[in-house]
Amino acid sequence: MQMKSKIAALLIGLLLGSGSVVAEENLLEAMFTPLRQKEVNPVNNKLYKDECGSCHFAYQPGLLPPQSWEKLLNEKALADHFGENAELEKADLATIYDFVMANAADKSYYKRARKIANATEGIEAPLRITEVRYIKRKHHEIPDSMIKGNKDVKSLSYCDACHTQADKGVFDEDTVKIPNFPDWDD
Amino acid sequence: MKKSFVLFCFTALFTTVAYASPASDSLLAKYKAEGVAKTDVAKAKKDWTAEVVVEGEKMSCASCHGTDFSKSGKHHKTGKVIEAMSHKVTADRYTEEKKIEKWFKRNCKDAWGRECTAQEKADFLTFLIAQ
């Protein structure tokens, strides 16, 4: 009986405790989708998906800290975006900027985004996800022949070439398939 | 003989103007206002595969889009699949003025290292919507 009421008290406590975070949509969402919670918050903005997913997979904002996005998402930077023209109309740029900033690595409760936020804290913000220490470390054992020498990958930048659920924000090792190297895992 | 020639002309005319969207019409009118007297589809066809060396890489429109308009292409750098250029395959092609102009701007710079002229864009657009 005593045990039972203790559990009940604990449950009530938990419920009350979580009441204070109801406003935090991300956390709440994250709590109820355990797999995603480990991963990176998926993109739920159509304009971003269309505009920033036209030349490459639409990188989740949670893959870079806000200081990096700040450098990438302005008129001047987009006119020469890694050698290409990715200019946007003013209104579209404003919408995309706001969406990205609200979901950047430091704002996310998703585990990998947190790791990226930590890995980039206090250093010059990188322009590329592939320059983030955490991301570099996760891939440093993959030989060049599977990336640069692989015509269906070409560069580590193309996450979705290997991460089959990258568009859902899932980068778990178990979802990786390297094109032309079915046995990369051996 | 004469009759079949007329018929031929009629069919040719019909097939080239068979597709037009409010967006392509409005853009072609804009190019006309910018001084384009007439469009040259044969030139567009040649320009499509005309190679220019940009940043050490030989580039043309076909580098990313290929030459079969019913098939998808691949971005030369990122490898991302680009949907077929033919509106018969990709239904929303050439339906949005803003989008057509945006990609003309980006891709002329990417493939030729400069923006295209109104004449070149008018030629390409007329050529492409007929595919």
- Cα radius of gyration of chain A in angstroms: 19 Å
What spatial form of chain A do the alpha-carbon principal axes imply?
A: globular
Largest sheet of chain B, if any?
Answer: 2 strands, antiparallel
Shape by Cα distribution of chain B? globular
Instruction: Tell me the CATH architecture of chain B.
Output: Orthogonal Bundle
User: How far do the termini of chain A sit from each other?
Assistant: 54 Å
Number of helices of chain B: 6
Strands across the major sheet of chain B, in which order? 1-2
CATH topology of chain B: Cytochrome Bc1 Complex, Chain D, domain 2
Q: What Rg of chain B do the Cα atoms give?
A: 16 Å
User: What oligomeric state do the depicted chains represent?
Assistant: heterodimer
Which structural class matches the secondary elements of chain A?
Answer: mainly alpha
CATH class of chain B: Mainly Alpha
The helix tally of chain A amounts to: 9
Q: What are the secondary-structure elements of chain A, in order, as H or E? A: HHHHHHHHH
Largest interface: A-B, 16 and 12 residues
**How many domains in all of chain B?**
1
Q: Helix fraction of chain A?
A: 40-55%
Would you list the SSEs of chain B in sequence order as H and E? HHHEEHEEHH
